[in-house]
């Protein structure tokens, strides 16, 4: 879904559980997810560091299927960093059966990243060849993510006289459980409309994309959508979401406190001591500019509403 705040919170919780249950391989999986989140957020140094460390461990253990997610982290990090050919090289390894990082099902979720890398890195022909191979697989498997990715690739590579029909047809299909892919499609459609000198038509799609990207915490995509909106003659400021100032564990504790749970109840759910929960709240309040649980609840509710 592209929700980096939820993903990072879940990965952090998972890592704690792996330590408590002595399952180090799953701790590594949590680190890979943290790397994916860092890449999506534009935290390149963290993403690269986690990818390198996880790859070393996976190779030493011979756990090769998980290498695909390492390549995912590297590919998205390079895409966000504007190194499009490098991004394509990283991501395309996942689709190559002869490559040690090959994993077909991981590839089902990455076609949109691959398409953006190919189009901006001059790999149009390679992308076309790969999507032709994936088309029959999408039909046989019925994979929603693969079919959505191929539809996105079709839309962004379509000729101008066909593009609008493809964009509109796919936007009709996208539903709420897929916010990130839908927002990417709205961004691509809005950018296409602007290039067609239809600035007024482009703005609603770009605004919707910005709102979704901000809510998901995928800052690089939000900034690109803002650039397109500015180019159309309109500016939209980034909202100040208090949740962005909190760590994953602080987000969990703040959310429970805002729901009315006591320190003891929060501690029982998170396997912490009530005193530790109190210490966290002591740090959370000044970060979001509040002094009480009631104020915290109002701030978090307002942040969720603007998302």
Describe the protein's architecture and organization.
By secondary structure, the chain is mainly α. It folds into 3 domains: 1-157; 170-238; 243-306, Orthogonal Bundle (Arc Repressor Mutant, subunit A), CATH 1.10.10.10. The chain is 76% helix and 0% strand. The protein is built from 17 helices and no strands. It has helices spanning 4-20, 24-41, 44-61, 67-80, 84-92, 104-108, 111-121, 124-141, 144-157, 160-173, 179-195, 199-216, 219-231, 248-258, 263-270, 274-288, 293-306. Helix 7 (111-121) packs parallel to helix 9 (144-157) and helix 12 runs antiparallel to helix 13. It is globular, with a radius of gyration of 21 Å. The protein starts with a helix and ends with a helix.
Q: Find the count of extended strands (DSSP E, 2+ residues).
A: 0
**What is the number of domains?**
3
Based on Cα principal axes, name the global outline.
Answer: globular
- Per DSSP, what share of the residues sits in E-state strands of 2 or more residues? under 5%
Q: Extract low-pLDDT stretches.
A: none
Terminal CA distance reads 15 Å
Q: If you compute it from the alpha carbons, what radius of gyration comes out, rounded to the nearest whole angstrom?
A: 21 Å
